[in-house]
Structure prediction request, 418 residues.
Amino acid sequence: MTIDQFNFAGKKAFVRVDFNVPLDENFNITDDTRMRAALPTLKKILADGGSIIIGSHLGRPKGVTDKFSLKHILKHLNELLGVEVQFANDCMGEEAAVKAAALKPGEVLLLENLRFYAEEEGKPRGLAEDATDEEKAAAKKAVKESQKEFTKKLASYADCYVNDAFGTAHRAHASTALIAKYFDKDNKMFGYLMEKEVKAVDKVLNDIHRPFTAIMGGSKVSSKIEIIENLLNKVDNLIIAGGMTYTFTKAMGGKIGLSICEDDKLDLALDLMKKAKDKGVNLVLAVDAKVADSFSNDANTQFCAVNEIPDGWEGLDIGPKTEELFANVIKGSKTILWNGPTGVFEFDNFTHGSRAVAEAIVEATKNGAFSLVGGGDSVACVNKFGLAKEVSYVSTGGGALLEAIEGKILPGIAAINE
Ligand code: AMP
Prediction:
């Protein structure tokens, strides 16, 4: 079932959203992107004459914690939706059930943070540090057992289920995946945001226009290894950028000064280079760097060859030759995936390389390429440069996007398709 096909008139929908928004110390929302991203789905349901039970998590509470209460976002949700949203102080219990049952068309109920219950994630809590393996196994079994009741209860509030929380689609949690079992195929669907995410991922995985270029930045090879290996089977060009660069440079015998490096991953870097060669993938590495004499925005800087970084200096961004090299590859591409900055973009003096990459992606997009930007920091980059609207798609999912691109089946997606 698709959300456009479904008529919500007179129906109660359980909508799993990702309202895990950042809050400041006074509980003001500092970035409401995730809330706004769910509005098209919520508004469609209300416009049809349905009612909504909203489920979400906020933060990583270990139990009931005022700091992580969704009541902090209630006022803003009212404003965004233009509806007086009701609140249930507990997602289980009498109050939630009574309020859900009494919902009339056009009404909305926000449930308290689902992760106040260990059952949402299905992971035991409060285990003693010295718990034995048996105790751990017993606790796990117990929470899995009670998770069934928890999930069933959430499902009982509604006639249909809508998943619009792409950010948690890679987790087999009660409200993101398990709950779907309680609804037949005709009564469960993706929300608009999920639909867009799934389509964007599908385009870079299954509908590839070539050349396909992936730009992988960020700090560590170790955290990107699986995705790099998977991408080697798909892309024509793989650009390696960011802190990962120096592990490759050192592995090839270059001098990297104080640059970030994973010394235990040197063999891995060489192995990736060999795999790229065997598969005919053009692995593009930096040739020069903007180096600094300390890890700070105000450090002294100079440009040098990436494999000749002086002692005491560290590479914090790519240099002009590399910018040109990367930009040429990107501009000649028809499918582009960007994850991770080319340097320490949090420091204004080291954003130039990431900006050059973003601008090249924008130009390629204008020339007809499909460009997907995803993973927290590259999204922050395109937002910082004001270029988010000029790429084909900016994903809201970090881990979920990377796992999807690694080729993993995401439980949140599978549960709807089953
Ligand atoms: P990740 O979370 O792995 O995508 O990495 C993103 C982080 O990598 C950002 O916080 C960047 O500041 C950092 N980063 C990028 N390039 C470098 C570099 N050359 N040295 C140190 N950190 C870097």
